[in-house]
């Protein structure tokens, strides 16, 4: 894959790179996508993340990890950040950072929770909340690479207002089936009542275990543990179920 990070080149991954904000766009009332130019970026694989470091004028420095939302390749990197109200970093990124401002990136990080275009098996993506971000990188990488591998995305959110990438995921995309599940408030006329993800949801909207799909599950810890357990219960091989989870980090 041209321009992509090569697993094993740790020296390249662990360098800090200057990243300049080019654009910030709202994804929801509490989340924003930030587009950065990163000269010398080694490229990334769909599903990887970066460490982001902010340094104040007085020398104080802090860092957080964020999943990459953009497709593989190139020197532009997109992050979608969910604002944590009492957080130290996310409110600055989502509300205050302006085009031309800079931070530092270290990465890309991660080699297990990734999808490569040369994979041929069907793909099931299961996302809870902002866990959609690394899965969106997979969706975009598939689309931009012209892959014909069939994808199914099951995306659980509290309400329609909490959906990320609503416009993009609402467009017709051959070979990509998207299902939204709502836990608190569903759109009018929605047949499924609001509630947590169930095994039946995965039967209805996922792939049969006999198809041996590659399964990627990302979201809060409790959601990921339940979804992964349901998939195994439904007959999916544990080695085909890859998980990424997140929890409170100080924002």
Concise overview:
20% of the residues lie in helices and 33% in strands.
Walk me through this protein's architecture.
It is a single chain. This protein has 2 domains: 10-109, Elongation Factor Tu (Ef-tu), domain 3 (Beta Barrel); 123-246, Nucleotide-binding domain of ferredoxin-NADP reductase (FNR) module (Rossmann fold). The protein contains 6 helices and 11 strands. Mean pLDDT is 91; it is low at 1-13. The radius of gyration is 18 Å and the shape is globular. The strands form 2 sheets. It has a 6-stranded antiparallel β-sheet. It has a 5-stranded parallel β-sheet with strand order 9-8-7-10-11, with helices on both faces. With 251 residues, the protein is α/β, with parallel strands linked by helices. It has helices at residues 10-13, 90-96, 132-144, 166-170, 199-205, 221-233, and strands at residues 16-28, 31-37, 49-55, 61-67, 76-82, 102-109, 123-128, 151-157, 176-182, 214-220, 241-246. InterPro entries: Cbr1-like_FAD-bd_dom, FAD-bd_FR_type, Flavoprot_Pyr_Nucl_cyt_Rdtase, FNR_nucleotide-bd, MRET, OxRdtase_FAD/NAD-bd, Riboflavin_synthase-like_b-brl.
């Amino acid at each position: 894959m041209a321009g992509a990070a090569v697993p094993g080149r740790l020296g390249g991954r662990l360098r800090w790179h200057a990243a300049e904000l080019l654009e910030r766009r709202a994804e929801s009332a509490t989340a924003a996508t930030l587009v950065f130019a990163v000269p010398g970026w080694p490229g990334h694989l769909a599903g990887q993340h970066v460490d982001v470091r902010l340094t104040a004028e007085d020398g104080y420095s802090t860092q957080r990890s964020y999943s990459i939302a953009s497709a593989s390749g190139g020197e532009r990197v997109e992050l979608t950040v969910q604002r944590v109200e009492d957080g130290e970093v996310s409110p600055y990124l989502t509300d205050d950072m302006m085009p031309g401002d800079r931070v530092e990136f270290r990465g890309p990080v991660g080699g297990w929770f990734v999808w490569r275009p040369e994979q041929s098996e069907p793909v099931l993506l299961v996302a809870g909340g902002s866990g959609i971000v690394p899965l969106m990188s997979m969706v975009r990488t598939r689309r931009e690479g012209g892959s014909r591998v069939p994808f199914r995305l099951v995306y659980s959110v509290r309400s329609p207002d909490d959906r990320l990438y609503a416009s993009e995921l609402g467009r017709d995309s051959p070979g990509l089936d998207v299902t939204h599940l709502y836990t608190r408030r569903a759109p009018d006329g929605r047949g499924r009542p609001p509630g947590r993800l169930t095994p039946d949801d995965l039967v209805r909207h996922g792939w049969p275990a006999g198809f041996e799909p590659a399964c990627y599950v990302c979201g809060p810890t409790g959601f990921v543990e339940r979804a992964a357990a349901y998939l195994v219960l439904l007959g999916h091989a544990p080695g085909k179920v890859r998980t990424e989870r997140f929890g409170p980090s100080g924002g």
